[in-house]
Amino acid sequence: MRQVLIAGGAGFIGAHLVRAILARGDRVTVIDNFQTGRREALDGLKVAVIEHDLVQPLRTAPGRFDLVFNLACPASPRHYQANPLGTLRCNFVGTDSLLSLALSSGARMVQASTSEVYGDPEVHPQPEGYPGSVNPTGPRACYDEGKRAAETLCAEYHRQHGLDVRMARIFNTYGPGMISGDGRAVPAFIAAALEGREIPVQGTGKQTRSLCYVSDTVAGLLALADGEGLAGEVFNIGNPDEITILKLASAVASACGRPDLAIRFEAAAVDDPRRRCPDIGKAQRVLNWAPRIGLEDGLRRTVAAFRESARLMASVS
Ligand SMILES: NC(=O)c1ccc[n+]([C@@H]2O[C@H](COP(=O)([O-])OP(=O)(O)OC[C@H]3O[C@@H](n4cnc5c(N)ncnc54)[C@H](O)[C@@H]3O)[C@@H](O)[C@H]2O)c1
User: Fold this and answer.
1) pLDDT above 80 for 126
2) What is the pLDDT of residues 204-230, one digit of tens each?
């Protein structure tokens, strides 16, 4: 039985990862400040929870671990732009603390990085070797540059200290457990469709995204954690099925049984990437990983979970 630390384990992807690791028979400790994570996400699970803001130093070591995952960082623009300096510090100070903890524990670490390190890419699809095109002073930079600096920290802990740290550049992930008000496209579209409102699309809707169902993302993180000889390596984890936001809006409306709903166009987000699609050749070749859940199936499962949580909310109110 391995001891696994998951920073950000109460968040959307983190809570799915916690379940997957518990199912393997390992022991899980979660560190989270519950900024965007929910305590209920861990209800009924046998996990140790340490409430801590990783912007603050870890004064006492929370234990010894074999494996550390760092998912601690708000992922939706609405949340990470609410406190941009906090986002930067979380990515720099928090990642530094966890790397140092992994080093002193003799643990392997997996860093949750992001496709946002590619910024508004000029290369399509994006391979891991593409260094990116990020506006360092724009409103997304606290996240994009924070994650880039976190990758640099990981690379230097590997080069200077020999730490076995691997980086996952996660592309847009969706699924049950997302918060409907967090501003991300899938939950915003589902919430609108289930309430019979127009679907709110930012910009022209011609921008593209590639959406990965959460169980596929988690399987990718586990494959990355398990592989041998991957210290210092970076992998794209995402689904290369690229779709325009307009087509996504109509797929969500159909999955909710409301293909009749109109689109409401809103102002485009500043520095919003125009195209986004992972080259997953390296993950397929080295990790033997590829996503399995198609968009229609993934949306069906996600909409069912949103309906169920709306039903539960209605029954307690
Ligand atoms: N969801 C995606 O589409 C996506 C895409 C690319 C990368 N990622 C990365 O994956 C990770 C998880 O994403 P998510 O969608 O689950 O996000 P999320 O916002 O749902 O979860 C983040 C978790 O980290 C915790 N957290 C935030 N700041 C913290 C701090 N200072 N100290 C301790 N805990 C803190 C939050 O409370 C939450 O539990 C993030 O690092 C994100 O950048 C996610």
Assistant:
1) yes
2) 999 999 999 999 999 999 999 999 999
In a domain, 288, yes or no: no
pLDDT, position 180 = 82
Nearest residue by C-alpha to atom 13 in ligand 1: 75
Cα–Cα distance measured from residue 75 to residue 214, given in angstroms and rounded to the nearest whole number: 14
Of ligand 1's atoms, which has the minimum distance to the CA of residue 79? 19
Distance (Å) from CA 257 to ligand 1 centroid: 30
Mean pLDDT over the full length of the chain: 96
Q: Which domain holds residue 199?
A: 185-209+241-276+293-316
Does pLDDT of 59 surpass 80? no
Q: Is 141 found in the same domain as 230?
A: yes
CA dihedral 63, 68, 73, 75 (to 10 degrees): -150
The answer to whether residue 287 is domain-embedded is no
Cβ < 6 Å from ligand 1: which residues? 8, 10-14, 31-37, 53-55, 71-75, 79, 90, 94, 112, 114, 170, 172-173
Assigned domain for 224 exists: yes
**194 and 158 in a common domain:** no
